Write the structure tokens for this entry.
Amino acid sequence: MGSAIAARLTRQGVKVLTSLEGRGPRSRERAEAAGMQHADDQRLVDEAGVILSIVPPGQANALAERFASRLGRAGHAPLFVDCNAVGVSTMAGIERVFRRTGARLVDGAIIGFPPKGDDPGPALYFSGDAASDLKGLAEYGLDVRIVDGPIGAASALKLSYAGITKGLVAIATAMVLAAERAGAGAALKTELALSQPELLARFAKTLPDMYPKAYRWVEEMHAISEFIGAEFPEALMYKGAAGLYERIAADVAGDRETCKRIDAFLAS
């Protein structure tokens, strides 16, 4: 996502800096292909107008803390935007860190697929007191949408949306596998084709698309469960979804037997 958004910005004439500290060869190749320039943290703070944090959710907190104090001391203070799929409580913790340093923070959420070519690309939702300062990004090919709410509102939107879309993928995956184990897979697919053809067509795309992403969805499901609240029993659904995606991720890294069973169901 980060390299795709950077590529769109560079095509619009924007100079995009990125930190490649600790990144592997593939990340460096993607950055180069997107037209990004490597910069150390100080150069990012000195030259950037906006810092977009687009990293795996588990790295979001560390990256925010890494920049908060440096931004707070800077005479020129870029706006730091956390665009990651983190929990509302995690975002609140990041806000506390930034408040202590005096650095400016916006809560961001990206909904949709990485931009390609001239397609519209994903929607970028921003919330917080400084969110309106990001409206200008729309001039550079990004779909910017301002959420009228505090820090945490954009993250809540992202979690709610993912809870529906990725939650539906988890439910479909669990039921396909259960039906296959019980010998009812073919009958289930026939019934879906007759009574829910649109849903079956959606699953034919979204289930295989999920395989390489499952490892990234584990923490997101835990964040959704926390967002709902432990006092509500429905939060347990997303703990189960996290376990399912963890199992799929292990399968992708292993013999892919589980993925093959899903593929066989969809192809039958």
Observations:
- The longest helix spans residues 153-181.
